[in-house]
Amino acid sequence: MDPKTFRKELRKNQTSAEAAFWHLVRAGRFYKLKFRRQHTVDRYTVDFYCPNFKLIIELDGGVHNNLGQSLYDDEREIFLKELGFQVIRFENDAVLKYPETVLNYLAVYLGLEKE
Predict the structure, then answer these.
(1) Closest by alpha carbon to 58, among 113, 23, 15, 27?
(2) ∠ CA 68-74-76, rounded to 5°
(3) Taking 70 as the threshold, does the pLDDT of residue 86 lie above it?
(4) pLDDT digits (tens, 9 = 90+) for 42-77
(5) Looking at residues 91-105, what average pLDDT do you find?
(6) CATH assignment of 3-107, given 3.40.960.10, 3.40.50.2300, 3.40.50.40, 3.60.160.10?
(7) Sign of torsion, CA 35 40 44 47?
């Protein structure tokens, strides 16, 4: 499957956490920053990307606790960081249950707000 078709499929079949996070940041809702969802970087498709900060946000469900998936995630993250990207991971539950905490953490991480 070509990357464009793959991204469209991921957007169409997004998780509830992805839908919730997208609702929080889309259309400049978070400090007027632009975010892209299911964005391709080299050979990987990342959950969310903010070009202003070269920031990748990954949302992780239970499958990411699997050793094989965890090793893949680590390898992928190292590769993306070597390209100059920042990578932040949030658990799906955090996004769904504590969206304001996630946004506050993100604001502090990016230096948009003091702790």
Answers:
(1) 15
(2) 100
(3) yes
(4) 989 999 999 999 999 999 875 545 556 678 888 999
(5) 97
(6) 3.40.960.10
(7) positive
Amino acid residing at 99: P
Return the biggest CA–CA distance within the chain: 43
pLDDT tens by residue, 2-23: 766 766 666 666 899 999 999 9
Burial 48-81 (b: 16+ CB within 10 A, else e): bbbeeeebbbbbbeeeeeeeeeeeebeebbeebe
* Contact by Cβ (8 Å): 99, 93: no
Q: Domain segments of the chain: what residues?
A: 3-107
Strand-pair partners of 45: 40
Which two structure tokens, joined as six digits, stand for 60? 């992780």
Strands 44-50 and 36-41: antiparallel
The encoded tokens of residue 58 equal: 């990954």
Predicted pLDDT at 3: 67
pTM of the entire structure? 0.87
Decide if 29 contacts 68 (C-beta within 8 A).
no
